[in-house]
Amino acid sequence: MSIPALNTNDVMDTIAALDVDRLSEGDFQVRLVRNEIKKVRKHAPAIAYMLDGILSARLNDYPTAKSHHERSVALAPSDKTILWNYSASMTTLAHYEEASRIVQRLVELGHAGPQHLESLIWLSLTSLDTEALSYNVELVQKSGFEPSQMIESPELAHSLLTILNFTSDFPNVAPDLKRIYMHVQNVLESKSSIVMGVYAEEDDFYHQRVLHIGYLVEAEQSDKIIALNDLLLEKISADEAIEHWDIVIPSFVLTKPDGETQGLVVYASNA
Fold this sequence. Notes:
By secondary structure, the protein is mainly α. The chain is 58% helix and 11% strand. It has helices at residues 8-17, 28-41, 45-58, 62-75, 80-92, 96-108, 114-126, 130-142, 147-150, 154-169, 174-190, 222-238, and strands at 195-205, 208-218, 248-255.
């Protein structure tokens, strides 16, 4: 693959086009892109570190991606595009809680449009952090929006209300949700999978209220989803710190490639 002198957008397009399932850091195509990023570093170091972070995230290298993005943010702590793309990399790596905190910072700096606000709600819902979710709903309202105005997905809006209502009635469930998300994130990371959507539904089981949380994961075959759920069940069953395992039921659910997504954070050249 021959890469001419590229501008930032072209580098991002090149990174997006890489067949990362077949590549690693030492491969020729990756080294070519790294060399082009070095050229960017001469005149825009913050952007270059951002690009390095995006490339490392595409290669599923969380520690290196995080390190590059942190260096980028250190050089340009208020840059909207740099913060947004940092969040996109954390989303790519299934670190939704980190991604949520980064978008939260972006919103607190006053860089909030409907896309950022919807993603903020989606990320905090995905990470099952009810304290952050309540805080972020307030952030949305302070930005001049109501959640119902900027959440395009009816399923996402319904899930938001379901979790907030359930945890309001059962406040002791909040620590369990955090631990459940920890296991969800570990399973996703171990299987190089990401969430395309999340839903929450309340049910009644023998006069006991039960919260079902479904994570939509893209897969061609159901075997992948079965493996994810088996591993998740194993981790949750072994976690004695989860007290309300009988009323909070998480699971992974199959969604076909190119299916509908919710507030997924995607890379932007100008967020």
